[in-house]
Amino acid sequence: MQANAVESKHGWTQLADGYLSKTPLFQFILVSLIFPLWGTAASLNDILITQFKTVFMLNDAATAFVQSAFYGGYFLIAIPASLIIKKNSYKFAIMTGLIFYIVGCGLFFPASHLATYSMFLVAIFAIAIGLSFLETSCDTYSSMLGPKANATMRLNFSQTLVPLGDIMGIVLGKYLIFGSVDNLANKMSTMHGAARLAYGEKMLQLTLRPYKYILIVLVVMFIIFALSPMPRAKATKTVEGSDEAVEDRPSLGETIKYLSHNKRYMKGVLTQFFYAGLQTTVWSFTIRLALNLDHHITDSAASTFMIYSYIAWFVGKLVANVFMSKFSITGVLTWFSLLGTLSLIVTFTIPSMVAVYTAILTSFFFGPEWPTIYTHTLDAIDEKRYTETGGAIIVMALIGGAIIPAIQGLVSDFSGSMQFSFVVPTLCYALITLYFFIEHRFEKKHPEEMQEH
């Protein structure tokens, strides 16, 4: 009763399934502002891959370890993060994520001075731990902050802010890391021995610059979050013999057993795996594709293509939100996925800069994919007491962002063609198209089972 009184005081009432009677605007905006923070970190990885490849003389497969460290952190921490959410609160998990993010950014200070690839990977992994906490909590939390019927639209709104963070990350990288040199690979190709080593260390010092600004934002967000009252938004059950409502906390084993037997949920997790790999690999290698197709372009100019990609992604989200508010969500995603697949077919088959532009166009179709797959898969969980762990396992599917880029890197190294290697994300997008086509047919036959319908 005390918990209900607190919630009423702040203007929202928590329902038994964890959703709220209405969306608390300030809290929802505050959670949504966390979303661009992980976009910034992810897009900076695309800059770091190009920088590290030249300085550390890496092949394409080795550069993919940046994404392996990044998304490997997501995979390993998602379940522990869900357990922390279950025992504490979404707010506590978000603050924990911000602390790890701050520590990871701080590790760029010693990494830039030690100038070893492994130390940078440690810093990136620490950031990924923080982001795993943030995504595991914020993705589910955003969808729960209001009535169930609008869960998909809420998460799509929050996810619409992610491209703004991606744009900020690539702009910081373009001007603070790439800004002082035209083409690092060309410049260092004429250097040898101690001169090359010294210049490489100087370039690695530049990687520290954007993380100084990110640290300031993170500390401010942490303070605001610590001082703000937040809904718990967790499923409850009534204690037998009384009217008291307590949070329903099933064991991890019980949860895994339930989820593993939920076929629609498991198909959604697998689809999220392919989508995470698809998005990561396209963005990881777009700059490299541009540099390969146009040998006269500079690193800084090539990074501009990523700004265009994130703008296309942002616009794609806005357009998709309009379509999804009027038409079937699974129908809209089927068409977006199909057109994205066709765009990537052009990317790996046309040997000109047209391939770069169609890779950018693909980002437009990325727009609604991640949040829609997430909430669509979460909606397949009928028993809402399994929501926290269910959301964590979907986040674990981000391990696709570590595996698929590595596969594309291997294809590039063995085939000798960066452009041909884009056949890997094309196949991923084709599988995602098939998933949404099947789900759309299911929706037409069983509309009553689609909570977002």
From TrEMBL:
Occurrences of domain Major facilitator superfamily (MFS) profile (ranges): 27-442
Keywords attached to this entry: Cell membrane, Membrane, Transmembrane, Transmembrane helix, Transport
Gene3D superfamilies: MFS general substrate transporter like domains (1.20.1250.20)
Segments traversing the membrane: 25-44, 64-85, 92-109, 115-134, 155-178, 211-228, 273-291, 297-315, 327-348, 354-374, 386-407, 419-438
Protein's membrane topology: Multi-pass membrane protein
Main localisation: membrane
Compartment(s) of residence: Cell inner membrane
Stored CDD domains: MFS_FucP_like
Pfam families associated with the record: MFS_1
Protein name in the entry: L-fucose:H+ symporter permease
Organism: Levilactobacillus fuyuanensis
Primary gene name: fucP
